[in-house]
Specification:
Blueprint lengths: L1 H6 L23 H18 L2 H14 L9 H17 L3 H14 L15 H11 L5 E3 L7 E4 L2 E2 L2 E3 L4 E6 L9 E3 L15 H4 L8 H40 L10 H38 L2
Antiparallel strand pairs: 1-4, 2-3, 2-5, 5-6
Helix pairs in contact: 2-3, 2-4, 4-5, 5-6, 8-9
């Protein structure tokens, strides 16, 4: 097959890992652009067996990936990892071929190679079968500020598998990609840092709540406590009125011996409903006041 002609050229290129992705970014790139270069590299490898085209496409993909202005999709990440597998195949790094294909399979559930691309018994088919068979639990957490979402191969995640390469992208609170790096298997990611916008409201340099947060918590607790008192007063008034009518009934008060339908409804439905509703509201408001007060004390 034509691809073997490229392998026979002994072409040496750098692996798709962190150090290979340095460089300036004149403008943000898209996931689709990375995919275009990755597919061009795959076509040069599998279809035309064009060494120069392969090298050019890989170089373009290398330049586009670290400049991504959006999270890469899982499908496009799989295409990128396939190119990494092809490079490793050229350099006869068998273990890296399997690792890269394992990343491609994990990134996209639809990833596959055709019988023409990877015939039965070929090194690429053997590596793909091994990648699918491997069940390696190598997940490690990725530390990031609470306002940052880390994307791994096109999926938000709090961890990454270290047994395979991965496209790592922390996305900041403004939905901007802070940086993109293609990590080799086992490679440590760079530190993720970002200024979370609410830090000034929640913490101060000496620890504890900031003054603005204290004012908010205190005011909220006071308002909730006041509301609880008001609801309790209304509930008590409804109960008192109901009890007064009940006492009149007990002594056969002439004023209520022949009540109107409205008076009956007021006694049997309206007053009990009001008492229950205001009592429940008082309990709820009291719980809110207690919670805000406790938070104020604990974060003082």
């Amino acid at each position: 097959m034509q691809a073997i002609r490229i392998i026979g050229l002994g072409m040496m290129t750098s692996p798709l890992s962190g150090a290979a992705w340095a460089g300036g970014c004149p403008a943000p790139t898209t996931s689709a652009e990375v995919s275009t270069h990755a597919r061009a590299a795959a076509d040069a490898f599998f279809v035309t067996a064009d060494q120069d085209a392969f090298v050019t496409a890989v170089a373009a993909m290398r330049a586009a990936a670290p400049c991504l202005g959006e999270p890469i999709t899982g499908e496009h990440a799989a295409q990128l990892h396939l190119v990494g597998a092809l490079e490793a195949l050229v350099e006869q790094r068998d273990a890296d071929v399997t690792r890269a294909l394992r990343a491609a399979v994990a990134a996209s559930g639809t990833f596959d190679l055709t019988g023409t691309q990877a015939p039965p018994g070929s090194p690429l088919r053997t590596a793909l079968d091994q990648a699918r068979a491997d069940q390696v639990d190598s997940a490690e957490p990725v530390a990031a500020p609470r306002c940052v979402t880390v994307w791994v191969d096109g999926t938000p995640s709090t961890s990454r598998a270290t047994d395979r390469p991965a496209v790592l992208q922390p996305v900041g609170p403004g939905h901007e990609v802070l940086w993109t790096q293609v990590l080799a298997a086992g490679e440590d990611p760079p530190p993720v840092s970002a200024a979370c916008g609410d830090d000034r409201l929640t913490r101060r340099d000496g620890g504890g709540s900031a003054p603005a947060a204290k004012v908010g918590l205190g005011a909220g607790a006071a308002v909730s406590a006041g509301a609880a008192g008001a609801f309790l007063f209304l509930a008590d008034r409804a109960k008192t009125e109901w009890q007064g009518i009940a006492d009149q009934i007990a002594v056969d008060d002439p004023e209520i011996l022949d009540p109107t339908p409205q008076q009956v409804s007021h006694f049997t439905e309206t007053l009990p409903r009001q008492a229950n509703a205001f009592s429940g509201a008082a309990i709820g408001a009291g719980a809110v006041a207690l919670g805000l007060g406790a938070t104020l004390v604990l974060t003082w």
